[in-house]
């Protein structure tokens, strides 16, 4: 695993929902003078996405180098139309892993860097807050619940390096060039000097960082002493994450899981198959049904926080390319914790006694869903998912 390097001298700002994220991103693009990098999983064609497209095209037309990476699956059926619009405006656009030419991996990262001065990291796709992201474009009852982080400071260089490497690897590179690129990315570029916010970029890929995000969570849970609040929409982690949650709760840590449910019935059944053991160990589980919960965030104790793209499922932890930011800062963690506590108030806490009293039909359904999911993930991850 590549070393997790924290760097100081960062100004970090939490952005809640696409309304805040899109406004900040568009403003940064409008002020770009040299270069704009954007990488996303979903790039829709709704009005919110159109505003970002317009900003990118306008930047390219005034001479800014604009490079966009869109996942081939996440881009959907409108990708060709979008590429044509970009090409006409002078925006360079590459699709990640078309036709699965490089295996099953998708880029699930949501990253942007402007002029190597400002970076954005989080879980928010380029799609309107009030439209579902499952391809049906149904209207959500409330804006999608998600987060991103705006960063100024030393960490921006690390984000730029990762995005530039991704761009180069999607072009025509010889094997020796790819190896050289991987070696250069291993070199720590920052140090800790105890000013402003300490932060680290946490990448998951299938070469240097196969388990970096999972290990970052496990280390934080292993050192937790008071509280741990974790929010995630697709809960199907491997045994290590589940054991990390259980051990923390058994040590007396107040562990709360805020889970998004209601989108896919089979996904809910998989998540619910884990409930009995987690609840019996003291982990509190809350189901969020107010609107679509898409956030992949956590706050542990008073100063450890993470925001990013990685779900707690087999695809995010063992297959896809993901990107999180880990921040060691009491003010930032406190701000995110307030949002999480509001999310818990809007959610329904699962009663352990109700889980114990589930019907035999529900128990069998959950067990079959788990076994089916585990089998698929073991095939997809070549046995890594446990």
From TrEMBL:
Check the record and name the CDD domains matching this protein.
Answer: PLDc_CLS_1, PLDc_ybhO_like_2
Keywords, alphabetical? Cell membrane, Lipid biosynthesis, Lipid metabolism, Membrane, Phospholipid biosynthesis, Phospholipid metabolism, Transferase
Q: Where in the cell is it found?
A: Cell membrane
Write one Gene Ontology MF term: transferase activity
Q: Where is the active site?
A: 108, 110, 115, 294, 296, 301
Say which enzyme class the record assigns: transferase
Give the way it sits in the membrane: Peripheral membrane protein
Q: What EC number(s) does its UniProt record assign?
A: 2.7.8.-
Entry keyword annotation includes Transferase: yes
* Primary location recorded for the protein, binned into one broad class: membrane
Which InterPro entries does the record match to this protein?
A: Cardiolipin_synth_ClsB, PLD-like_dom, PLipase_D/transphosphatidylase
This chain's function reads: Catalyzes the phosphatidyl group transfer from one phosphatidylglycerol molecule to another to form cardiolipin (CL) (diphosphatidylglycerol) and glycerol.
Indicate the family of this protein. Belongs to the phospholipase D family. Cardiolipin synthase subfamily. ClsB sub-subfamily.
Q: Under which name does UniProt file this protein?
A: Cardiolipin synthase B
- Name its species: Undibacterium flavidum
Species lineage, top-down? Bacteria, Pseudomonadati, Pseudomonadota, Betaproteobacteria, Burkholderiales
